[in-house]
Amino acid sequence: MHAVSWDRVKAYQYEKTPGLKRAEELGLTRSYQIEMPVPETDLILSIYEVWYNKEHVYFFYSFERTKGSFAKHLKDREAPVLSFRAFLSDSTEDTDTAGNASYPLNWPSWEGARHQGKFHQRLAVAPFIEEDQVLVSRIEEIVLKQVLVQWGDHTYPLEDIRLPLHIDLTTGQNETVPLWHSE
User: Fold this and answer.
1) Is 42 exposed, middle or buried (0-12, 13-18, 19+ CB in 10 A)?
2) CB–CB of 124/142 below 8 Å?
3) pLDDT digits (tens, 9 = 90+) for 71-109
4) Burial tier of 73 (Cβ tally within 10 Å: 0-12, 13-18, 19+)
């Protein structure tokens, strides 16, 4: 989808991520300005927003090319694809199967919003669960490890990415809003 404005990018994100708009209005998302060049390519990865809730942890990011555009690649469904495993910063696990693996949910990797030369996308991971199957509700930082960018037939590893969250879901208050209210 080619977005003519940032508002259109956000509308696309809201369509693909129910509750995101309300979460932003309530200050439940975290904003970042993290940019990482992808080695051996002309790509720059930017992570700019994270939303941690009881169902998913959403990571909003974009790719930008320093030379050329995405138009032909996206037409052929050859978008760069990000993947990673998310860990709590105090986790001692670091195996190939540890951490929470990223997944696209309802947003396939070749879909996204193009705006001002950037291709905007989203990934999710499962929220973190303690040993007694209780949701981890206080998180200071998430670390993305085994970060990979796949583009075409090539895969490019990136350094770990640290995302300070400083969230405490125990201080929140649940509010139920009827969706099909007739009044």
Assistant:
1) exposed
2) no
3) 555 555 678 899 999 999 876 665 555 688 899 888 777
4) middle
The residue with tokens 């996206």 is: 74
Q: If DSSP codes are grouped into helix, strand and coil, which group holds residue 153?
A: coil
- Please report how many Cα atoms fall inside a 13 Å half-sphere around the Cα of residue 137, on the Cβ side: 9
10 Å CB burial of residue 28 (0-12, 13-18, 19+) is middle
* Of 103, 110, 98, nearest in space to 1 by CA: 110
Which of 19, 5, 93 lies closest to 55, judged by CA? 19
pLDDT tens-digit profile of 13-67?
999 999 999 999 988 899 999 999 999 888 999 999 999 988 999 999 999 988 8
What is the number of residues in the chain? Answer: 183
Residue with tokens 């951490």: 99
* SS3 assignment, position 21: helix
pTM above 0.90, yes or no: no
Amino acid residing at 28 = L
